Amino acid sequence: MDKVQAFEIKSSLKNKILKKNKENSSKTRNENYFMIFVNNGSCKSGSNNKREEVEQQINSLINEITTLIKDNRNTYENPSKLKEFEKRSSLRKRENQNNEPALAYVISSLNDRTIIYSYLSKYVVDMVEKLPNVMACTEDRKLYLSGKKGNKTNEMNKLNEILDETQWSGVTVRKNSDIHLS
Coiled coil: which residue ranges (predicted)? Predict the structure, then answer.
């Protein structure tokens, strides 16, 4: 079974990778769905308040990102995709202080790191990367676990493995799903 594993890398190497990624991505990056990596380890209060403090910090960042998107709608080449994302976001529970849907949302948190997901123009990405505690913005990408893309035999074997392991009666595959979905 194929696995994808993430691991902590030394900060000097990580900084080199982030710098190289920024150089490369700033040349080719267009508007797209982005994962925004946030360091929320700057909250140093006692353990009882830290979770609330982190949640406030993340909510504040989401509100800032939402405001940046709304204030810079004219920087989007494909406003219909932004509208579509906004419509999907309105179905989410999280809202900003004006009871409007947030145009960014948390997809993962672990320890002192949080990943926020949003649809951003190149201009907005550059602004978001400058916000406090934002470590990086990475475009959502398609990952292929093994073999050639679209290998039907391989896909069927994987589905059969899933059915055997989980004892489910059926499995469906959603093509072109977001990267954070399993």
Answer: 44-71
